[in-house]
Hints:
Chain A: Pfam families: Peripla_BP_6 (PF13458). Chain A: This is Amino acid/amide ABC transporter substrate-binding protein (HAAT family). Chain A: Belongs to the leucine-binding protein family. The complex is a heterodimer. By secondary structure, chain A is an alpha/beta fold. Chain A folds into two domains: 45-164 and 310-390, Rossmann fold (3-Layer(aba) Sandwich); 166-302, Rossmann fold, CATH 3.40.50.2300. Helix content of chain A is 39%, strand content 17%. In chain A, the strands form three sheets. Chain A has a seven-stranded mixed beta sheet, sandwiched between helices. In chain A, strand 6, helix 8 and strand 7 form a beta-alpha-beta unit. In chain A, helix 10 runs parallel beside helix 11. Chain A is globular, with a radius of gyration of 23 Å. Chain B is an all-alpha fold. Chain B has a domain at 22-259. Chain B has 16 helices and two strands. Chain B has helices spanning 2-19, 22-43, 46-71, 79-96, 102-124, 129-142, 144-149, 151-154, 177-201, 203-213, 215-220, 225-251, 261-274, 279-303, 307-328, 332-349; strands at 160-161, 253-254. In chain B, strands 1-2 form a two-stranded antiparallel ribbon. The longest helix of chain B has 27 residues, at 225-251. The interface between A and B is large, with 49 and 55 residues.
Amino acid sequence: MRKAPPLVAVLAAAALLTASCTGAGEVAEGDAASLDVSTGVTDDSVRLGTHMPLTGPAAPGYSQISVGARAVFDYVNAQGGVHGRQIEYLVEDDGYDPVRTVEVVNELVLQDEIFAMVGGLGTPTHARVIDFLNEQGVPDLFVSSGALMWNQPDTHPLTFGYQVDYTREAKIQGQYVAENFPDASVGVFFQNDDVGTDTQAGLEQYLGEQIVVREPYESGNTDIGPQVSALEEAGAEVVICECIPTYMALLILESQAIGYEPQFVASSIGADTVTLNGLLQEFADADGGTADDMLDGLIATGYLPQATAADDPWLELYTQIYEEYVPEEQPFTNTLLYGMVQATQTSMALMAAGPDLTRQSLVDALHSGEFNGPGLVPFSTAEGEHSGFQGAYVTQYHAGGRSEILQEPRVTDRETGPIEEFDFSRPTPDEVVFYGG
Amino acid sequence: MTDDTARTGRAAVLDRWRRSPMLLRHLAAALAAFLGIVLLTSVTDPFTNLRIATIGYHLVAVAGLALLIGVSGQISLGHGAFMFIGAYTMALLVIHVPGSPLWANLLLAIAASCAAGVAVGAATARLHGPYLAGATLILAVGLPAVALRYPEALGGSNGLTFSVAGTPPALSDTVPDPRWQSWVVWLAVLLALVVVANVSRGRLGRRLRAVRDDEAAAALSGLRPGRLRTVAFVISAGCGGLAGALQAYLLGTATPSSFGLALSLSLLAAVVLGGLGSLWGALWGALALVYVEVWGHDAAEALGLSDHVANNLPIALFGAALIAIVLLWPSGVQGGLARLGAAVRTRRIGPGGRPD
């Protein structure tokens, strides 16, 4: 009896040694995990999880997404939940560090046993866990990133994209700039990862000749003085910023510091004017100007209504939810709204999946259902097309908080297809089922 | 009478244990520890298995650094950089040479960081105190930027992602992947610790201590301080490389942001917290690295603290623990435990008595 345990250890060690003779990178295609399960679901609750940067370089702005989402889930729960189930929403901070993303997603899936992942944020972060989530059979809804890789139904059948992908959005930006600033020299300031490569693939199609300078930045390094000087020296009159809010704000500040005043064009990920306002305010105070003046004239692309828009039935509902469920110190921003829309569409999917909720029924519902509503452009979750929002509109910010639509929403594809206007009847909140029995 | 015989019997066993070759003793201890890990992972859930594996790779990094600081008297603020080298070596091998077995990958990762250790160690062996700290600090700050400089090969700030083979097919029904991974990690860690323990207790360790305590005297006795320092640096770098490679294996990723200055500094803090120059101390340090963070988050969640407080609580806790330990037990947790143990033994045997 006493000899047995060491024997176990010796055998295990021997097994390890023999097994380690096969290639470390030779991943066997295992059987897909069964989807006919209701992990994380009880008769009166369903557990969802997400990973978000609540700290670190990406936190300004993005930390509000889960606040908005939680407010909508609270609202849904107060209306009786989805098919009588209260939505439990677990938010884990990964600090935008992929290593921590892996850890917290392990925790969510293995320990907390979530039913589905919703809106995991970031390309470098979420890219680390899509294999794991698909292997474990965890539906991976509405990734908060515009990378192209979320739309790969063949290899990652459980991952669904959400925001308009970077290439589509950049095509629309490129076309708009080419048509409205045909003689301008264009500079591109971009995040040096997939955001940069994917957006340039889109810009290139319309602005190939016009682009005179491309300047990358590394997330985490806040000294962007050299890049801004290079943009100015190259004589860029329009600067397209493919960057997160922190760097949009830094770009505006740094340009102002050297007296450089190009027309800025921002993409949806960095164009939340309320967040930018907050970031700029502390610096502006020192200069005597106001942050709002710095943002005046900023052109941006988007696919959700602006938080400042009037006469929007969805915004009426969201404002009501905001007042009731969001802690007072949180301003009502586009980013908060982003989380609210994401949560609304998640609740729609849970409703569409029916009362007998399994992972398979959720995926089926996503493939067959319509998830249009809060967004201003069509949303796709069809079988073989998991891309999310299909296009974008162009808007311009005016000091004082007013945004003007410069170009109505258009849709396009991620390849070289045309950019088109579209017919789209956008349902109002009353026409959409996202809570109830 | 019988009591005496029992004591002599036990003493004889202990005596034989002490006189058996050191390598054999360490290997036996490692085997026992591995058995413990196998048992522990068998009764815990997959998530805890991964956490146990996480402790494993932190342990080997901390142990390597403890050897460098405690035994050879050098300091390194840049050990995260060696983990970076190990992790990227592992990642590149898995991606470009998928047929290469795991043990070969681990050995190559160790070799790569040892090579870097030779280069750095040869330069820093001439430096002391703050100069040495500064020189190694450059590593921690500068090396991760290499990945940004060569985005095609090293993936830029997004880093490299890959999948590694899980449990071999023959065992896949009985052993879940996380448990298998934690076994792999701990087997590698324990083998590395055997090496570190042998170095530390053996002739090389004695020489290193001699150089640490009095360089001039050591040089007069025929030792070569520069070379010995470099050797210690290389061993320690190899441990860091192994830790990085195991981390990459476990998480399937290597990103520059994971190997920043914060990692290097927390490794150093863990060494101080656990106790310099002892493998047990390294274990306490590694446990603290992993669990203080977890407990901090749990506590913040339980207390319903706001995000700003909650996110800084683990760091604050770690800092407070470090300060408390250094004040109470200047020689770290292990030193404190040893003192407690000695006090208990003296009381049991009585003043003047000799333990065993």
